[in-house]
Write a structure and sequence with these properties.
944 residues; alpha/beta; Rossmann fold; 32 helices; 32 strands; 38% helix; binds thiamine diphosphate; binds magnesium ion
Length: 944
């Protein structure tokens, strides 16, 4: 195995090891902000090579690139052999187009068809005496010398043959990397692999035998499943078994690079092979499910997920760069995912980011992709675009595309416009290694190279393993309906496991009996585990609430109030880390606005040792310029976060994560972060609530249903600015109705274990309590906050310090404290959110302060039935109840609260609706109509 490099990059290495340190998170926190993440530090790395290089682009933000000057000797040699340089350059840039990537041979382009790859194109003669001329290879090519280094000279003919092997063999490299240091490193390593044309030089004999066993076992598993469960969709790996070889190579290379913690996200294809093969998951778990049993142990509430979404967290037997008999230096967790291809990717990234706070770059993300999904799903682009951002970088992801050249039944001509499925990675200049999936040594070596690259440069890299799919999209499908020629070729093709075993036997590398014996043993184990799964005694293992989650539990009653108040002394101390206008109000103890309450909630949690992460577009400032949780030195542009210095030993860290302009990937990322760490208050704020539907998949498949399906609790807070202030059809509605529809509470409100909380708080203090409540409970639930816009600065919408003091808590319903004589009330208005303040104003104007009460529903889900009932009961003479909302009747909370309120309000009394009529667009864009609508529903509400 060639791992050494031609030249010493000592300076670069030492800089990069520093990058490794700062990318780890906490050490990098300057005033609470991760000042230097991998992405930013990379730019600094580039800065350090400035002396020897030339900056070629200064318009790329923090990601500048430099051309590293070659040594004078290299340049002289390049000038002497300018035509060879041109040829080498052509192979390096377009050799991949002629590489033998497709095992089926259907889409291989002959080298002769690409003029740039013909030496004659540059006036080079390869045959005869000219070809025998010996040249210095310095600065030209990197030809392995067989001893871990590179040859210093070679004949022209050999140089050409080397280029042809390296770039048009079984590996096609796309090294479109602007950074010269990376490009050179990659070039050396790629050329050292010689395109997989000399397999024995890449992988030693005993390892080749191990690889053969892996392949054969995978085939054995698929055959076993086909025999025992012929009518199950298992998304087998037949045709792409080398996926396991790639993963084996990656696991080994990880431990060679001190990567100890790997989060893996993958789709359906070959997942069961991976689980039962490399991940050593008990096959009984799979068989049990197929026999109708649950993967969730008895006594634990949860409904489970389909077979191809099973997840596992385990220690694997790899250490020091190799597979070992015992001991482990590698922990992996294959995370849960929904069917929505690629959408779990940012979740995995968020999880890795959280882990990197302790582990640094030794926590790594590995993503597997299908070729069609990788090309088609927008979340891929969003994730790439986050890869170097200060608050989202994870020091590089290794991507493995299991490219079976089909997506469902579609061929690439139908499913992608780009040449390669991997082309989307080019948005951040991700290097790509395309590799023929029938060359296990090439797959193994390319996979190791990928991990080495990520470990060294902390950037993403893609391995695109080209293979095929022996059966249909699932095992019940007939693929030849739509791909007749491809399937004719597949039918004629011997399987890779068989071909490879035979090849090793022919070469005298492996004893075929050893491979057969290993396959037989694997099959015997499958039989035994099938019998075990069929036994009535079989119980699936518990795999939830472990590690950091050990002190948390499935709650029996999430509606029990929790005291979240904080002593006045502490609140005042935290308030000192604030801007002066806020400090004055804190001293007065009154008139505290939304942003102040937020700061106090965060500060008090930080004081208790929790971390806080707030993420979203421009969140540090806040969409409405209200937050200003960090302060910029107007002279130097440097920034400080006062809350990170509140003078409490061991305080937590507030991380302000200004995000890219993405909803889907960023929200997924934060879900992943919160999934990893129950002790960090993770919040995502949409710029306006309506943009949240760009992340609908994350809400539906993860936030709303993740705990029920996977038993994974999650305390993520989502803030959705909402409110009808005449802004028109956009920016008015966070679509409260949709979130309520995702809630699992029944109308009678019997369930005490809601899937998530949805609140619409109307006071800063209630917001304060809601945030604190997220952390002080012994369980975690997602929280959706319908958050305000105009209330941020409304004078009436303030709280006093005593509202947050010890003994106080979140209020799910606010009674009307202005009513002195409840018996005098004949009309009760019920509402949620900012309309409350408008109603109070109207009531005052109409002189109805004695006869009309206004009740605020602060918590929509779980619906506080008992609290609401006791408040409504207290208005004994009221017989008119009106739900008032500013949203149209088909939006807002009306349809959700209606059946619930009716249970409380006796049938003899009247419950009616006052709000906008149903509408398709959520709001009108004409000020006059907007006002007229308000007049209409206000009149109805007060019966004016
Ligand atoms: C977001 C999304 N859209 C559609 C589907 C339905 N679907 C399931 S698998 C599949 C084909 C995927 O092709 P590819 O990514 O190449 O993976 P392969 O099945 O070939 O391994 C499709 C369209 C899905 N699961 N997710
Ligand atoms: Mg595919």
């Amino acid at each position: 195995m060639l791992r050494s490099t031609h030249v010493s990059w000592g300076a670069v290495n030492s800089t990069l090891s520093w990058v490794a340190k700062v990318a780890s998170g906490k050490t990098a926190q300057v005033g609470g902000i991760t000042a230097v993440s991998a992405g930013m530090a990379r730019a600094m790395t580039m800065g350090m090579s400035k002396a020897s290089g030339q900056m070629i682009n200064s318009l790329m933000g923090s990601r500048n690139y430099f051309v590293l000057a070659e040594t004078a000797e290299e340049r002289t040699n390049q000038n002497t052999h300018a035509n060879l340089v041109r040829l080498a350059s052509a192979y390096r840039t377009c050799g991949h187009a002629a590489a033998r990537l497709d095992p089926l041979g259907l889409s291989v382009v002959p080298r002769e068809d690409i003029p740039e790859l013909d030496p004659a194109h540059y006036g080079l003669e390869v045959e005869g005496a000219a070809g025998e001329q010996v040249v210095s290879t310095l600065g030209l090519v990197f030809m392995p010398d067989g001893a871990g280094g590179f040859k210093s000279e070679a004949t022209v003919k050999d140089v050409v043959a080397h280029l042809q092997a390296a770039f048009t063999g079984d590996i096609g490299a796309e090294l479109h990397v602007p950074d010269a240091v990376e490009r050179r490193w990659l070039t050396e390593r790629v050329e050292a692999m010689a395109g997989g044309t000399q397999p024995a030089a890449l992988v030693d004999a005993s390892k080749r035998t191990e690889l053969a066993k892996l392949l054969v076992e995978s085939e054995g598993f698929d055959n076993f499943m086909q025999k025992k469960f012929a009518f199950v969709k298992r998304y087998g790996l037949e045709g792409a078994e080398a996926m396991l070889v790639a993963l084996e190579g990656m696991f080994e290379a990880s431990t060679a690079n001190s990567i100890s913690d790997m989060t893996i996200v993958m789709p359906h294809r070959g997942r069961l092979n991976f689980l039962t093969g490399l991940l050593k998951t008990d096959p009984a778990l799979i068989f049990g499910k197929l026999k109708g049993k649950s993967e969730i142990p008895e006594g634990i509430r949860g409904s489970g997920d389909v077979l191809s979404h099973l997840a596992v967290s385990t220690d694997l037997p790899y250490a020091g760069g190799a597979r070992v008999e015992s001991g482990s230096e590698l922990h992996v967790s294959l995370i849960h995912n929904p069917s929505h291809l690629e959408h779990a990717n940012p979740v995995a990234l968020g999880k890795v980011r959280s882990r990197q706070r302790e582990l640094g770059p030794s926590a790594m993300c590995l993503m597997l992709h299908g070729d069609a999904a990788f090309a088609g799903q927008g979340v891929i682009q969003e994730s790439f675009m986050m890869s170097s951002l200060p608050s989202y970088s994870t020091a590089g992801t290794v991507h493995l595309i299991v490219n079976n050249q089909l997506g469902f039944t579609a061929s690439h001509a139908d499913y992608r416009s780009s040449r390669y499925s991997s082309d989307v990675g080019k948005v951040v200049c991700t290097p790509v290694l395309h590799v023929n999936g029938e060359n296990p040594e090439a797959v193994y070596a390319a996979s190791q190279l990928a991990v080495d690259f990520r470990a060294k440069f902390h950037r993403d890299i893609i391995v695109d393993m080209v293979a095929y799919r022996r059966r249909g999209h699932n095992e019940l499908d007939e693929p030849a309906f739509t791909q007749p020629l491809m399937y004719e070729a597949i039918r004629k093709r011997e399987s890779l496991p068989k071909m490879y075993s035979a090849k090793l036997a022919d070469e005298g590398v492996a004893d075929p009996e050893i491979i057969t014996a290993s396959a037989a043993a694997a099959e015997a184990k499958l039989e035994e585990r099938l019998a075990a799964a069929e036994s009535p005694d079989y119980t699936p293992p518990a795999n939830h609430l472990g590690g950091k989650w050990a002190e948390f539990k499935q709650t029996d009653d999430a509606t029990v109030p929790v005291e979240t108040g904080v002593s006045l002394e502490t609140l005042r101390a935290i308030g000192k880390a604030s801007v002066s206008p806020r400090m004055k109000k804190l001293d007065a103890g009154d008139g505290l606005d939304w942003a102040t309450a937020e700061s106090l909630a965060w500060g008090s949690l930080l004081a208790d040792g929790y971390d806080v992460r707030i993420s979203g577009q421009d969140v540090g400032r806040g969409t409405f310029s209200h937050r200003h949780v960090y302060l910029y030195d107007q002279g130097s542009s440097s920034r400080v976060v006062p809350l990170n210095d509140i003078g409490v030993d061991g305080q937590g860290t507030l991380h302000i994560a200004n995000s890219s302009l993405s909803e889907m990937a960023v929200l997924g990322f934060e879900y992943g972060f919160a999934m990893d760490d129950p002790k960090t208050l993770v919040m995502w704020e949409a710029q306006f609530g309506d943009f949240a539907n760009g992340a609908q998949t994350i809400f539906d498949q993860f936030i709303a249903s993740g705990e029920q399906k996977w038993l994974r609790q999650n305390g993520l807070v989502t803030m959705l600015p909402h409110g009808f202030d005449g802004a028109g059809p956009e920016h008015s509605s966070a679509r409260i109705e949709r979130f309520l529809q995702l809630c699992d509470g029944d109308i009678k409100c019997t369930s005490k274990d809601p899937n998530m909380f949805v609140i619409n708080p109307t006071t800063p203090a209630n917001y304060f309590h809601a945030l604190r409540r997220q952390m002080v409970r012994d369980f975690r639930k997602p929280l959706i906050i319908i958050s305000p816009k105009t209330l941020l600065r409304l004078r009436e919408c303030t709280s006093s310090l005593t509202d947050m003091a010890e003994g106080t808590a979140f209020q799910p319903v606010f009674d009307d404290v202005s009513i002195e004589d409840k018996a005098a009330v004949d009309r009760v208005l019920l509402c949620s959110g900012k309309i409350y303040y408008d109603l109070v104003k109207r009531r005052d104007e109409a002189g109805l302060t004695d006869s009309t009460a206004i009740i605020r529903l602060e918590e929509l889900h779980p619906f506080p039935l008992d609290a609401m009932a006791s408040i409504l009961d207290s208005y004994s003479r009221a017989d008119n109840y009106v739900w008032v909302q500013e949203e149209p009747a088909n939006n807002g909370a009306w349809r959700y609260v209606d059946p619930r309120l009716r249970q409380i309000i006796s049938s003899r009394k009247h419950l009616s609706y006052a709000g906008r009529p149903p509408m398709a667009a959520v709001a009108v864009a004409h000020a006059a109509t907007h006002k007229a609508e308000i007049e209409a529903f206000m009149s109805k509400a007060f019966a004016l």
